[in-house]
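Table S2 (continued). Query chain:
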Amino acid sequence: MNEQDIATRVSALLSRGAVLKGAAVGAAGVTLAQAGLFRALAAESESVQRILDITATIERFGVTFLGAGIESAQQKNFNKPIPAPVLAIVKAAQAQEHFHLAFFERAGGRPFVETFTIPPAALTDYDTFFNAIVVQEGAEVATQIAAIGVYARLKRPDLVKISFQYAAEEAEHRVLANAALGTQPANDRAFAPMLFGTVGEMLVSMRRRGLIGGSGKAVAYPGPTPIDATNVTYRTPSGPAAR
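Corresponding output:
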């Protein structure tokens, strides 16, 4: 079976109903069924499987890194305090990364690593922490631009849709981190840059920045702080089918 045939089996995955905060158990069951369809595709498609694995790795890092930052803020380790409204945004971002990860792992994503390395300044210097988020989120958006190239070759607008839904949220994280830094305007780009030609280049980028296998503090997933999903909705991909 070729990739085009396999991809047909996941159409329903990306177009069923939204699961909101407090959704019923029946709706959660639909989410599991969707992930099962995506997992079936990934089992037979090396390129899609690689995208899932790298995405799961990225999202485990996001949960871990933001959790470490939240703990550092709560312990007052930063050189200037993170205001409570900003810290609430960071907690919401961590929860959103958690929901991304839950979806992609149910879909069959297998993270390459369980432990990440965080440069010391990122947990003590306010600007370094938020600049790290700006860079990482921009890179995550670029990763999905590369993934969309794979899905376009498969002629799968439904897979393009999920990449866009996911990348759009990561772009919001970048803007919010810019706002925390005082960047004016925080939304300083008209188009997201295409940084990578392939999805795999994201792992190279993370290694170069010392986030995987670096000399900084080793922090194992899921990190030191619990997920606070207060007011975080639309916890799985949803909406009309892309055609």
